[in-house]
Hints:
Order of helices and strands: EHEHEHEHEHEHHEHH
Number of strands: 7
Structural class: alpha/beta
CATH superfamily: NAD(P)-binding Rossmann-like Domain
CATH class: Alpha Beta
Distance between the termini: 55 Å
Amino acid sequence: MVTPSQAVVVVTGGASGIGRALAERAAVEGAKTVVVADRDGAGAARVAASLGSVGTHLALDVTDEAAVKRSIEEITATVGEIDIWCSNAGVPTGRGLGTDADWDAGFRVHVLAHVYVARHLLPRMAARGHGHLLITASAAGLLTEMDTAPYSVTKHGAVALAEWLAIEYGDRGVSVSCLCPQGVRTPMTADFDETSATLAAGALIEPSDVADAVMAAWREGRFLILPHAEVAEYERRRAADRDRWLAGMRRLRARLHRPDS
């Protein structure tokens, strides 16, 4: 069972949204230290300060493998062995097929960032026989985000990587969980409009609701974390009859993009 109590917890993308909620919840749950990491160093510092004596921060670009490795080493040396790493950073990408820059950013943040932390942290955890990695993917990684191919495809990659890591490390004392929320009220969803497939799928939930779901799943030892319970049924329907599911998605897309009469 994973618990933040007396743990050294690192949260990337921790300056806002889901990351901030995870950092705040880890502090409430009794973490020894919560390291708020974000490319926005000033934002990370503000969140860390709000956590009181357990909060600390670092400016981190999760797509820089050398920086990730260095951060793991520095945290271990100054604070202690890392018990929980929430690999949570995410980026929005362009609509449709996007640009090469969208694909590059999505792959670096949604896939390679998780690879880097797994490469440099999980062997250390396995050597101790203890540790947990949370990968924040998305319901888009189980289903499909119709609005943006780069986001959907790279989030599918995040889910696949989390599954691979759970198989590779699950019998070595290292647990892995995969967080797949649908719509969450964060800066990333602030500009969504009436054509958004995410909004069409259901109401946005709060980041604190996601943190609640994460803690419940950790206590129960579940790999897949679904803050929106309906996503499990959507995934079941997709797997049961892919053609029917695709037809339904095309109908939804046509409805969202129907010209005003």
